[in-house]
Amino acid sequence: MQQYAPEHLVRVMNPLSSDLNVMRQTLLFGGLESIAHNANRKNANLRMFEFGNCYYFDAEKKNSEKVLAAYNEDFHLGLWLTGNRVEGSWAHADEKSSVYELKAYVMTILQRLGMPMGGLLVAEGSNDIFGKSLAVTDRNGKHYLELGLVKKQLTAMLDINNEVYYADLNWTNIMKKIKKNVVSFTEISKFPAVSRDLALLVDKSVEFQQIEKIAFAADKKLLKKVTLFDVYEGKNLEEGKKSYAVNFTLQDENKTMNDNQTDAVMKKIIASLEKQLGAKLR
Fold it and tell me: Which residues form a coiled coil (predicted)?
């Protein structure tokens, strides 16, 4: 593998054993060993993560005055997916893990961290541990992550039959990127939330996101969450219509909401939906 060439290994001067005489350059192989261990025990559907340090030696940076200049240590987060995402469900056909599932996990992590996505570049990855991969860098070439399908040659070495999807996040670089983010916290309300359900008859072209956006525009203070819990298309509905069953969660941070206050908010939301989408209550 060119990505993790032997000349870039950091060697241990006094190793405990011959197989522990170098520091790891990647988290990948520890995860593959765990996958193989589990697969041999009939546990093939796995989602795993690991935080850990990775080490890299660059002879070109060797300096007699700065002894450690040639050595690099970065903190990484590794994610592994293999086997089926869904299996044995009465409500859903078996479904294999995919790179799209892995990408969703990675994007969720970045969003929760407040990672600024503007200025980042997504391109085909170059790490040769992957058969296919995507890499995220900035315009200066700083590397943040790479994710994709691990090469079959590598998984075959450990007798892993299923495809393995792996994401390598350079946590050190990500933390540097977000260090200027201002994080604010809000005290959890001591007062209970109120829930209301509506069955809305709308045109088939209407998406739930439109309903959600209009609802929050109607009330920015008390409306906390809008959830779609059922969609019906079929008999007893007008031509070209469908029914959305939507839950609205409201909460006042300063007091318990009464029925009059709740009804007033819901009337505003309903009026906005009727005006902008032509929605009707069933």
Answer: none
